[in-house]
Specification:
Blueprint lengths: L2 H22 L9 H21 L15
Helix pairs in contact: 1-2
Length: 69
């Protein structure tokens, strides 16, 4: 996977999460525990997104070498 492909996937996830947020507006907040499930999924997706953003240099064709101290 290249950095460009990763960026595309992350944009797709962002778009899907915005759609989920929009769809939550029409649902009563505590309907069958759905908000708790939504919050859990949103938090997990956010964690995965941050992890992938941080790993972006590893997807480069020219990885950055670690600095020596």
């Amino acid at each position: 996977m290249t950095q460009r492909q990763l960026d595309d996937r992350l944009m797709d996830v962002d778009k899907a999460m915005r759609g989920l947020r929009e769809s939550m507006r029409g649902i009563p907040i505590r309907f069958a525990g759905f908000k708790k499930d939504h919050d859990h999924v949103a938090r997990s997706i956010a964690n995965a997104t941050v992890l992938l953003e941080g790993a972006k240099p590893m997807f480069s064709n020219h990885p950055v070498k670690a600095r020596r101290h």
